[in-house]
Design goal:
By secondary structure, this protein is of the alpha+beta class. Helix content is about 15%, strand content about 30%. It has a single domain, classed as Thrombin, subunit H, CATH 2.40.10. Helix 1 packs parallel to helix 3. About 45% of the residues are buried. This is Peptidase S1 domain-containing protein.
Length: about 300
């Protein structure tokens, strides 16, 4: 993978927010404690209001996630726009933003349909014996009615303006073993009777070394693998396309799972598609024009609000 082989110096601002995150987590752990009784993106926790303002859910034809890249565009996985190998009508795709619980009745909730969508020209779905693999699994959707900027709805802000800059960020994330977060409104059960969540779920993951991540040659540098320190923590099919963050920044989206055999045992990793290689293709370089609160600062502010005596 392209983030191996270089060591980047930490930015002081990131060290600061990481310290805030540690303080918040250690002093007020109840803010981020996983719910052991309710449904969850398996092994995860509920997202908090405003924690992921760029994350959306796609419904109608298929349950998927997505990320707001401008108030009129979202990026998601290409496979989210196909059902039984047939493209879905854009008008049948509903995009919802602004809430972490889809059942919540609130004026903060924003909902619209797609006017059109653009699937990567090299996208390919290959059916294998037990699964389906995809190449260039990205697509951009254009909203019929643009979202409006609010406290809980904001376009994503990438940590760099181009692919080269994103490579440097990935080097730093890998060198520091930064915490990554996978999000989604996907399945909350591990059995064959899939039940999708009405609540945005979050699972903490860490990058896996490229030597154990079996990525198709064409996708090396485009995709990464990660695993959760929590027993059984993982994403599920309905999470596909949802925002993926590392070190507090959105860097990609959920793709699926990778099954490998190590020492005669089945080992599962989560697979993620990086935005970096597609920034020029989908004109994502203008995503940094809108301010977005770093998640560590967000949690620290909650710490001040709820935990300070």
């Amino acid at each position: 993978m392209f983030w191996h082989g270089n060591t980047c110096q930490l930015f002081n601002s990131r060290c600061f927010v990481n310290l805030l995150f540690i303080l918040c987590m250690s002093t007020c752990s109840r803010l981020v404690k996983a719910d052991g009784e309710g449904g969850k993106v398996i092994g995860g926790r509920d997202a908090m209001r405003g924690e992921f303002p760029a994350t959306v859910v796609l419904s109608g034809a298929k349950r998927c996630g997505g990320t707001i890249i401008s108030l009129s565009k979202i990026i998601s996985a290409a496979r989210c726009f196909f059902v039984d190998a047939k493209p879905v009508a854009s008008v049948n795709v509903i995009v919802t933003a602004g809430v972490v619980n889809l059942q919540t009745k609130t004026p903060e909730k924003q909902e619209t349909h797609l006017e059109k969508y653009h699937v990567h020209e090299k996208y390919k779905s290959v059916k294998e014996t037990y699964t389906v693999s995809t190449l260039y699994d990205v697509a951009v959707g254009h909203l019929k009615t643009p979202f409006y900027n609010s406290e809980v709805v904001k376009p994503a802000v990438l940590p760099a303006d181009d692919w080269e800059g994103m490579k440097k960020i990935m080097n730093e994330i890998n060198a520091t073993n930064a915490v990554c977060l996978a999000t989604g409104f996907g399945g909350i059960t591990a059995d064959s009777q899939r039940v999708d969540s009405d609540v945005l779920k979050v699972v903490e993951v860490y990058m896996a070394p490229d030597k154990v991540c079996d990525v198709v040659d064409d996708m090396v540098g485009h995709e990464i693998c990660a695993s959760s320190p929590q027993d059984g923590g993982r994403t599920t099919p309905g999470d596909t396309g949802s925002s993926f963050l590392c070190g507090g920044y959105i860097i990609g989206m959920v793709k699926g799972r990778v099954k490998l055999i190590q020492d005669g045992k089945d080992v599962h990793f989560m697979a993620f598609t990086l935005f970096g290689p597609y920034m020029e293709y989908f004109e994502l370089g203008d995503m940094g024009s809108t301010f977005q609160l770093h998640p560590a600062i967000f949690l620290f502010m909650l710490f001040i609000s709820f935990c300070w005596p």
